[in-house]
Write a structure and sequence with these properties.
By secondary structure, this protein is an all-alpha fold. The chain contains nine helices and no strands.
Length: about 210
């Protein structure tokens, strides 16, 4: 019976790893990282035997599948260190895949720890851990001001063109449109809460509008 479970876990892990190799890398989100919050929750759940620590990361309809995978993992990981590592990875992959599916995001495989996620995500996590939002606000404010000032400078530099210089006028209009959309996106992002995961391709497309 144990051998059958081991084979099943190995098959699922290989399948999920293969999917991760061939799906496009559309999204960057630390929930799919080995050092991300979902995997950390999974590690705590396996160490304590408390599945509730990971159920918060999935939707109600997916709880049964996670509980089943959790029990399989607990049963197998006791055999030896090598099997334990494989079983844990199986559970990590299952949990992250189902979590991302619930958010409408594709599963592209577990990502290595220590990725460069930029300054915003680590600052957000640090703010939540420390209970201090001021450093995060400072980062966002400085970044926003820098972006607005740079684009404003570029647009105003193109504003003084001859009335018969159509080409220069078109360059100004292009800069004007980009600047307006840039400011509009900042305002909408600040006003409305974000939901789910957003592929990088969507962000690029929006920036070009």
């Amino acid at each position: 019976m144990k051998n059958k479970i081991i084979v099943a876990l190995l098959s699922v892990s290989v399948a999920l790893f293969t999917i991760g190799l061939f799906l496009p890398k559309q999204a960057i989100a630390h929930c799919d990282g080995l050092d991300g919050p979902v995997v950390k929750a999974a590690q705590n759940a396996l160490e304590t035997g408390n599945v509730n620590l990971v159920l918060i990361w999935v939707q109600k309809k997916d709880e049964a599948e996670i509980k089943k995978a959790f029990q399989k993992t607990l049963a197998v990981r006791k055999l030896n260190p090598q099997v334990r590592e494989l079983a844990d990875m199986y559970f990590f992959e299952t949990l992250v895949r189902i979590h991302r599916a619930g958010e409408g995001a594709p599963y592209t495989g577990l990502q290595p720890a220590g990725r460069d996620l930029g300054p915003a995500i680590p600052a957000t996590d640090k703010a939540l851990e420390s209970g201090k939002v001021e450093p995060l606000l400072k980062l966002l404010t400085e970044s926003m001001q820098k972006g607005v000032r740079e684009q404003f400078k570029q647009v105003t530099a193109k504003k003084k063109f001859g009335k018969d210089d159509v080409s220069a006028g078109q360059e100004y209009v292009n800069g004007y449109v980009e600047f307006v959309h840039y400011v509009e996106r900042i305002y909408e992002a600040a006003k409305n809460p974000a939901e789910g995961h957003y592929p990088d391709s969507q962000g690029v497309a929006a920036h070009k509008e």
